[in-house]
Amino acid sequence: MEMPVNFDHPYDVLVVGGGNAALCAAIAARRAGARVAILEKAPRFYRGGNTRHTRNMRCAHDTATETLSGPYTEEEFFDDLMRVTQGQTNQPLARMMIRKSKDMLNWITEQGVRFQPSLGGTLSLGRTNSFFLGGGRSMLNALYRTAEKLGVHITYEAEVTDIEMDGSRFVAAQVKTPDVTRRLAARSLVAAAGGFEANIEWLKEGWGDIADNFLIRGTPYNRGTLLRTLIAKGMKQIGDPTQCHAVAIDARAPKFDGGIITRLDCVVFGIVVNNRCERFYDEGEDIWPKRYAIWGRLVASQPDQIAYIIFDAPSLELFMPSLFPPVTGGTIEELAAKLQLDPAALRTTVETFNAAVQPGEFNDKILDGCHTEGLTPPKTNWARQIRTGPFYAYPVRPGITFTYLGVEVDEEARVQLATGGAAENIWAAGEIMAGNVLGRGYAAGIGMTIGSVFGRLAGEGASHYANR
Considering the entire predicted model, what is its pTM? Predict the structure, then answer.
């Protein structure tokens, strides 16, 4: 049974946010004996931030399981993280997270979340990532049911606009609801309110006016209000305001909340050109789950922040389709005209690419070595000539999932002060502190790992502090 927050009595643990990290923190704190409140800025229907749109999480494990096709060691996970971040990670913190992720699949299952059998196909994640049965919303609903059964109090449309501090100690939150602004006291605070990706003006502080052309894959409610407040109250900032999880999504997607169904997984099967019909990056650099999150940033650097994935008939059914159908043309010139591109320029780019493709045995399940020669930029894997009509294209823009600028934490998920040391009773989990692990880059499912591992740590730490 859902119970609203009682503003007239202090709580042991106040959790701000409503996604995976917040729920893991609230459940862990409640199971440790704390009286817990959750304040979620979004309406109930839109609760959960980006968790609503996720599909899977990445955890280390030593053997195959009912839902995973093989082992994924701590060292392999760490190597993957180092590769995608190019070393820009807090290594001790990352190793701790990976080590604790080994128990997370069991713990999450104990909270009511169910997983489906491992997936095959082009995502290549059957061994490394566990997929939620029913997707992110089903996972989220399971966590909410558990929190409610445990007696966690939850109020929606409740935005924390300020916090009271006594030195380094959190005292109370100022909470804006549709009807009134109220004060809520608590013995400890867990900040799990996400990033600021929906705050276009804040994005423009780092990116400039090109941020106007960004699409926001998730909730319009993640505006970074709590993050701004924490930094203003003396918490230590970490990360670059221009670093984020940014993928190439269908340019026809809505400005906000298009979710995962607008993502395109076909880059590796064709070429990507800008609106001048120029290729600008190696489409076959690595297995897609380790490289898909670089493409938002790549498209952001192109004229007008727009690009086009071009491929032909043999590739049409090699990837999961997007919400929108591809643009189709019987010839390259017809396709170009529909995209409002220069037909002669696109024909030249395709013919130049085709001439550079070397013989090889195409295999979309591995790094197949099918490559180009004498072409800049090269295509180092999955290079096949684009010559069999009909021809297809998807227009893409940068799709921002979440931002990496956040607050610094230690291995207990305690928020650090700008002046040194830790805040007495403030913890953080999820996207609001993801920059500790993700200095740049992304690999599929790591956001959920960060949220669940640090959420559980934060909830346990905040509860122990409150009940000491």
Answer: 0.93
